[in-house]
Amino acid sequence: MNSVHHSSAATASTCRPPIDKPPAVRAQANLTDYRRACTEFDWGTAAGELATLPGGAVNIAHEAVDRHLDTPRAAAPALHWLRATGGRVTLTYADLAASSNRFAGVLDTLGVSRGTRVCTLLGRNPELYIAALGTWKAGCIVSPLFSAFGPEPVRQRMALADAEVLVTTRAHYRRKVAPIRRELPGLRHVLITDAEELGADLDGVVDLHAAMAAASPDYAIVRTDPQDAALLHFTSGTTGTPKGAVHVHNAVLAHRVTARYALDLRGGDVFWCTADPGWVTGMSYGVIAPLSLGATLISDEAEFDTGRWYDILTAEQVTVWYTAPTALRMLMRHGQDLPPGTDLSRLRFIASVGEPLNPEVVVWGQRAFGRPVHDNWWQTETGAIMIANLAAEQVRPGSMGRPLPGVHATILRRGPDGPTMVDGDIVHADIDEIGELALHTGWPSMFREYWQQPQRYEKAFAGPWYLSGDLARRDADGYYWFVGRADDVIKSAGHLVGPFEVESALMAHPAVAEAGVIGVPDPLAGQLVKAFVLLRPDYTSTEALRDELIAFGRRALGAVAAKDIEFVDSLPHTRSGKVMRRLLRARELGLPEGDISTLEALP
Ligand code: ATP
Ligand code: MG
C-alpha cells in the first residue's frame, strides 16, 4: 500500500461546519431517518411503484409518460422547450404520448425490429424527447449522440453501436453523416426532423414529420421485459476512448427513486437539468426520472450563458435545478451578486454532478443563491445517482455525500493492479484510507455490458463489487470524499495526491476561477504537481501572482501543493463538462493527445 497522505485541505473541508439550509427555503424532508431508510429499503418492494404493463412488462416510455394519461396530469406541461432564438414551445404529457406513439409507428412502418439501435444526433429540441420515447415504445434501443460531435466521433459510435436508424437534422446530416454514410453499411434509415425543404443532396432519407403525420397517434407499447436493453450510452471519454454502457428498461425504477432522494423531485416541480440528453445525466434526469414523477421539464436549446441562465431560473420559476460544477464555476466567475431582477424565490433545491464540486463553490452557492448546492456522485455505468448529499440532510461542502438507500458502497484497498486480495478475499479500506470506490451489484440501473467489449466489462468487477475507477475515502460518519480518478492521481515524494484537493485549495484564492492539476515526471520526487490556472476576469497573470498562488497553495496543503503554475485562457473540458486532465498531461509531455472526440470546442 502506498503511504497515504491525508491533506490538510481534505481535513479542513471535513471540519468546516456543515451548511444549514435556511428555514424559509428548507427542502421538504423526504428522508428523515437515513439509517432506517437504508435498512428498510429494498428494490423489490420499491418496484411496486412502477406502473408496469400487463404481464409485468416494464417499458421506460410507459413509466415516463403514458402512466399519467388516466390522471389530470395528462393535460399538464411535460416539457417547456426554450428556443435559442427566443420563445418557448410547450408539450403536455398527452402531446408527448401521442407524438411518441407516432414515432414508434414510423419505426414499425420502416420494418425496424425489436432491439435495433436507434441513434439520435439532435440538439436539445422536442424531437429528441419524442424520438427517445418512441424508440422505447417500439422496443428498440436508444443511443443518444451529442449533437456537437464531428463526423469521426459520430462514425465511431454509430459503427460500434451498429445502428440501423439515425434521427437528425438536415444540417447535421449534410455536415457529419452524408460524408461517412458509405462507411456505415448497417445504417438503413435516416429520419430528418426538418426535412420540409429537402435538397437534391438529401436522397435516401425520411421526412420525419411527414412520416409521423401519416402514423397513428395510438400505439400498443411493446411489452418489454424489465431486463431488456433500452439505452446504449457512451461514457464521457475523460480517461480514454468512450465505452458504450448498456442499460435496461428496469433502470427507470432507480431513476425515480434516486431523483426523489437526491434531488427532492416531485410531481408538479419545474425541473431544469442542464445536462444534454446526449449524456447519461441528460437522459436519466433530463428525461426519464422527472417525467415518471410527473414534473415539468425545462429544456434550453442554447448553450451556457450567465445572463440567460439567471433569466431562465427566474422566468420559468424553476423549483429544482440540477447542474454541473463547471457551470457553477463559470457563474461564480461573475461574482456573488446576481443580475438585477433575478428571482430565485421558487427555487427549492440545487444539485450538482459530473465532477468534484469544490467546497468553495458550495460556500459561494450558499451566499449567492441563499441555499447550498448538493453534490452527488454517479457514472454512466451506474445509470443513476449512487451517493449524494441528501435532500433532507445538511450539506458537507467538499463531500459527495452518503450512499442512497438501496445502494451499498464501499472503499476497497488497492494494490498496484487493482483491489488487494488476501486469501481470495477482497479487503475493505479503513476509515479515511484512500482506496477505490466500489458498489455492490444489484441495483436496477447498473449497466449490463460494455457494448461489444465483454473483457472490459469483466475487468470492471471484483466478485460482487463493481469497481468505479475512482479513488475516494469514507469518513467516520459514512460520508464519501472524492480524491481523483485512479488514472489522475499523482504520486509525489511518497505521497498520493488527488488533483481535486490541489485544485480546490487554489480555488479558495479570489483570483482563481478554475484549475486543472496534473503530475509531471521528476527524477527526485517521481512526479511533481503542476497546476493550470484560469483567472477570474478582473485579474492579470503576473509572476507575482504566480508566486502568491504557489505560496497560497503551500499554506493550505503543505508538501503536496502545486510546485508549478501555468496560467491559461481556458481549460480543456469534455462536452459533459469535465476537466480533461489527460489532455493537459499529454500536451505538457508532448505525447499523442489520444481520443479527443468528446473535447469541447474552445471558446
Ligand atoms: P470515461 O469513463 O470515458 O473516462 P467519464 O468517467 O468522465 O468518462 P462519465 O460516466 O460521464 O464518464 O463520468 C463519471 C465520472 O465523473 C465519475 O467516475 C467521476 O470520476 C466523475 N464524477 C461524477 N460525479 C462526481 C462528483 N460528484 N464528484 C467527483 N467526481 C464525479
Ligand atoms: Mg468513467
UniProtKB/TrEMBL annotation:
Cellular-component GO terms for this entry? cytosol
Q: What is the lineage of its organism?
A: Bacteria, Bacillati, Actinomycetota, Actinomycetes, Mycobacteriales
Show the Pfam families listed in the entry.
Answer: AMP-binding, AMP-binding_C
Write down the InterPro entries for this protein, in alphabetical order.
Answer: AMP-bd_C, AMP-bd_C_sf, AMP-binding_CS, AMP-dep_synth/lig_dom, ANL_N_sf
Q: Does the keyword ATP-binding apply?
A: yes
The protein's organism comes out as Nocardia flavorosea
Q: What is this protein identified as?
A: acetate--CoA ligase
Enumerate the UniProt keywords alphabetically: Acetylation, ATP-binding, Ligase, Nucleotide-binding
GO MF terms, alphabetically ordered: acetate-CoA ligase activity; ATP binding
The record, for PROSITE patterns, names:
AMP_BINDING
